[in-house]
Structures are given as C-alpha cells and as structure tokens.
Automatic annotation (TrEMBL):
[4Fe-4S] cluster 2 binds at residues 60, 98, 101, 104. This is NADH-quinone oxidoreductase subunit I. Binds 2 [4Fe-4S] clusters per subunit. HAMAP family: NDH1_NuoI (MF_01351). Residues 140-167 are annotated as: Disordered. Residues 151-167 have a biased composition (Basic and acidic residues). It comes from Stackebrandtia endophytica.
Length: 167
C-alpha cells in the first residue's frame, strides 16, 4: 500500500543525493558521454555519392526526407551521344519527424547516408530541426571510421575473383 506523500519524499531524497554528490563526480553536460560507435545521433550526407535515386525518400516511413533535383546534359569528348545526369538541388531531413529507424541509411545503394553519434543539435524552434544538404554534409567528419578489416574474416568477392584470374 502506498503511504500518501511517500513518492514525494523519495523524489526529494534523490534530488538531495544528486545535489550532495562529491565534487569531481561530473556528468553531462560537463563531461561528454562515452557513446557506442554505432550510436544513432544524426544522419550525415555524403553529397558526392548521392545519385538522386530517391530510394531513401520513398522508403522513409515518416516521409521526412525532401529531395529536389534537375537533369544536366553531360558531353563526353569522343562519345557519340551526350548523356544526362541528376544534379541534387535539395536534400533535407526533418529531424522533428524522423524516428531514427535507419531505413534510409540501410537502403541507400550508393553509401551516401551515414549515422553520426552527434546528438547536440537541439533547437528552440522546431523548424530549425529541418537540416538541409549543407548541414547534413557538415556531420560527415563526425562519422566514425568503419571497423578494421578482420584478417580471419571471409574474403571479399573482388579479392576472390582477382585470385582466380591470377591462377
Ligand atoms: S531514420 Fe527513418 S524516419 Fe528518419 S529519415 Fe531515415 S528512414 Fe526516415
Ligand atoms: S538512397 Fe542514397 S543515392 Fe538515393 S537519393 Fe537517397 S541518399 Fe541519394
């Protein structure tokens, strides 16, 4: 049975304990937390890899990726025909809607999206949680390096086929 006021007393006890913690026991924001390397903090965009295939925007369950592009004609010297390529005009992610499911990062066939563990991008205006391609690109240097190659792991297809050719 709950004694009236016991919840409040417990809460005050926790507050008192935190307030009287010995100096030196520092917590966030004074000390940055040690996050696992695969933490889902924010999504970074490597713009050069994006082919505007739209797969991420189509698969996003929240419809919070907004992409615009235009076509550009590329003339290659010596080629019989010109070819067309997509140029990215807009790539925004609305982090006020994003649920950090990671589907966009998983489905991108061109390795243009990455998870960064950075999480300090809270805003006082919800509209500022819409990150454009430049802002998403600024997160790229914070993306952790991929894990080192396992020397005992399975060889890549490229290595195996190169070995077959050499025989
Ligand atoms: S993490 Fe999920 S919700 Fe967020 S932008 Fe990617 S697909 Fe959409
Ligand atoms: S899936 Fe990748 S390549 Fe395709 S539009 Fe999205 S970020 Fe660009």
């Amino acid at each position: 049975m709950n004694i009236p006021g016991s919840g409040l007393a417990k809460g005050l006890a926790v507050t008192l304990k935190t307030m009287t913690k010995p100096v030196g026991t520092q917590q966030y924001p004074d000390v940055a937390p040690e996050l696992p390397p695969r933490s889902r903090g924010v999504i970074a965009l490597l713009e050069a890899n994006c082919t505007v295939c739209m797969l991420c925007a189509r698969e996003c369950p929240d419809w919070c990726i907004y992409i615009d592009s235009h076509k550009e004609t590329v003339e290659t010297p010596g080629a019989a025909r010109t070819r067309q390529r997509n140029v990215l005009d807009r790539f925004d992610i609305d982090f006020s809607l994003c649920m950090y499911c990671g589907i966009c990062v998983e489905v991108c066939p061109f390795d243009a999206l990455y998870w960064s563990p950075e999480f300090e991008y809270a805003e006082t205006d919800i509209r500022d949680l819409l990150h454009d391609k430049d802002r998403l690109g600024e997160w790229m240097p914070t993306v952790p390096a991929p894990p080192a190659h396992d020397p005992m792991g399975e060889k890549s297809k490229e290595e195996t086929s190169a070995e077959k050719k050499a025989l």
